[in-house]
Amino acid sequence: MLLQPNDQWCWFVGADRHLMLDLGEDMLFATPYLQHKLICAGDLRQNFSVEDTGLYYTFLDKLSCVATPSRRIQAALNGVAVARFYKPLMPQSWFFEPQADYHQPQLGELIGLDCGERHLTMMVVETSPSASLCISLSADVVLSESKKLPVFGAIKVMNDRLFSLEADMQVQEMRRVG
C-alpha cells in the first residue's frame, strides 16, 4: 500500500528536534534529520505542498526497483524532506572516485558513487550542471575518520563522481532477456 498525500499532511519539528511529517489519522513519519541541519524554525508547521507532492511521486517512480513499498515510501519522503528543508551543502567529492564518463543526473535518478572499497547507491534530490545533492540508499558507510554517511544521509557531490545505475540496470535486464 502506497501512501497518498492529502491536505492533512503537515511538516513540523518534533520534541526530539527531528523533522517530522504528520500523516493524519494518528500516523507520524520521523525523518532522521535534526533541526540544526535544516532551514526551519522550531515552531515549524507547514502543509505538505503541491511541490512536495510532485517530488514525492517523482521519487516513488524512480524508486520502483526498490524491494518493498515501505522502503520506497521512506526513501521518497526523506528525499522530499532534504530537497525542501536541508541547509545548503558544499560538495564533498573527495570521498569518491572520479568517473571517466561525465554524467548529468536527473531529479530522483538512482546513481552510484565509488568510495574505494565499495559502491554506494544514492538518489538525486537536487541537481545543477556541476553538482548534485543526494541521499544514501546504502547501509551506513564510514568515509573517513571524521565522516560517516548513514542510510538516508545527505551529501553533495560534483557530477564527475556520479555514475548512472539506471544504465547498469538496463544492461543487466538485457543480459537476462538475451
Q: Which strand-content bin applies to the residues?
A: 25-35%
* Low-confidence region ranges: 170-178
- Give the overall form: globular
Seen as an oligomer or otherwise, the chain set is: single chain
Strand order within the widest sheet? 10-7-6-5-11
Total number of beta strands = 11
Structural class: alpha+beta
- Helix tally? 3
Termini separation comes to 33 Å
Order of helices and strands: EEEEHHEEEEEEEH
Radius of gyration equals 17 Å
> How many distinct domains?
2
Largest sheet: 5 strands, antiparallel
Average pLDDT, to the nearest integer?
Answer: 89
The residue fraction in helices comes out at: 10-25%
Notes on the structure:
Contributes to the efficiency of the cell division process by stabilizing the polymeric form of the cell division protein FtsZ. Acts by promoting interactions between FtsZ protofilaments and suppressing the GTPase activity of FtsZ. Residues 88-167 form the Cell-division protein ZapC C-terminal domain. It is found in: Cytoplasm. This is Cell division protein ZapC. It comes from Oceanimonas pelagia. A hairpin with a 2-residue loop joins strand 8 and strand 9. The longest helix has 17 residues, at 69-85. The chain is 24% helix and 32% strand. Residues 170-178 have low confidence and may be disordered. The protein contains three helices and eleven strands; from the N terminus they run ββββααβββββββα. The protein has 178 residues and is of the alpha+beta class. The chain folds into two domains: 10-85, no CATH class; 93-177, no CATH class. The protein has helices at 50-62, 69-85, 165-177; strands spanning 10-13, 18-24, 27-34, 45-47, 110-114, 119-127, 131-136, 141-144, 147-149, 154-158, 162-164. Helix 1 crosses helix 2. Strands 10-7-6-5-11 form a five-stranded antiparallel sheet. A four-stranded antiparallel sheet has the order 3-2-1-4, with helices on one face.
